[in-house]
Amino acid sequence: MKKFMMILLVMMLAAAGCSSSSADQNKDENLHTIGILLSDTGLGDGSFNDSAFRGLERARDELGILFDYREAPDGNFEEALQELVAQDHDLVIGLGFSIQEALEKVAKEHPDQDFLMIDGFSELDNITSITFKEHEGSFLVGMVAAMKSKTNTLGFIGGADVPVIHRFEKGFEQGAKYVNPSIKILKDNANNFGDAALGSSIAEKQIKAGADFIYPAAGFTGVGAIQAAQKAGIYSGGVDSDQYFIAEESVVTSMMKKIDNAVFDLTKELVSEGNISESSFELGLKEDGVGLAPVRVTELTDDEKDMIKEATDKIISGEVTIKMN
């Protein structure tokens, strides 16, 4: 039995590509290793963290890298980052705006270590920054929501009062008003990314107030909101990943924030070139960093599809701009 359990453990670690001993051993074989600290909601959020993890799994399978990861639900980001740095990875990734302060502190202490900050911008020389134009993708979700709303009332739920969530909100609102200038947007801030019950409660309140499309940018809190929308028989929109499979009778489309592709592409550059060439990246519709998941549950008319295509082209060209204030 003990022998079986040991074999099982080894197989699990190999499949995940994330044991520190494996990473250390393969450093001698000139394999690239990456460490990532996930945002505070951790794996299984069906959104932000899972997308980044998929990117590393793809890099492991296609590029032959190894990776280790940490979760810090207690908010002790600095300790988790120090553990990853101690493993001597080629790159240490901090995922999410909430990690930025700890990441910059650790980066100052380890100037020879390369870091990647996702969802934040840093001026430190050893930190590469990736931000996304969430407002551009959310504009398109807002258009779809307005096209399919019968009550002319939509609901938005944010996970925190921070710039990245404001971009989701502003894009969604302006996209909806691009289709229907008189549409009403109900807005609530959950101040939480990890409470599905709270998300459900807020969504239920918005539904009672007339919302028939809920768009939550709130991590696992948003999962609860989407499930509440399905229970009420109304539409919803997902974020970051394609969240259709969370509520297959409700999620019309999702604002795809292609973190998985960004992580894979930068890892590919690291492996092939030995470094990451740029200090910062801002990824929007033009760069294929954001976009819409397939439209399901309902159908768009040809005119509606044409309108979304036209708006996409105008955002890329700069003819349509999304205001952040």
List keywords for this structure.
globular; six-stranded parallel sheet; six-stranded mixed sheet
Offer a quick outline of the entry.
The protein is 46% helix and 19% strand. It has 325 residues and is α/β, with parallel strands linked by helices. It has a six-stranded parallel sheet with strand order 2-1-3-4-5-11, sandwiched between helices.
Apparent shape: globular
Structural class: alpha/beta
Assign a percent range to the helix content. Answer: 40-55%
Distance between the termini: 63 Å
The percent range for strand residues is 15-25%
**Secondary-structure element string:** HHEHEHEHEEHEHEHEHEEHEEH
- Which strand order does the major sheet show? 2-1-3-4-5-11
Total DSSP helices: 11
- Let me know the number of strands: 12
